[in-house]
Amino acid sequence: MRRQYDFSKARPNPYAKRLKKQVTIRLDQHTIQYFKSLAEETGVGYQTLINLYLRDCAASRRRLAMKWRTAA
Q: Which superkingdom (predicted)?
């Protein structure tokens, strides 16, 4: 290895914006099992399937229909 490298002519990684970021998310057991069984059927990893589903929701701006109960 060289002691120093010349990066003056380097260019930025064009795929850097596409890199994934690791996060911690808490999912219930039923949800995890659903995606794991779907992963077995499709041959795609369950975390990849969760990411694809969430990306689709974000792209289509899908929103959950939720109603919060007010405390009496």
A: Bacteria
User: What tokens appear for 17 in the block?
Assistant: 């914006």
pLDDT in tens, 31-63: 999 999 999 999 999 999 999 999 999 999 999
Supply 48's token pair: 């990849």
Q: How far apart are the first and last CA of the chain?
A: 70
Q: How far apart are CA 13 and CA 24, in angstroms?
A: 26
| Placement of tokens 């998310």 in the chain | 25
Two tokens at 2?
């060289």
pTM over 0.85: no
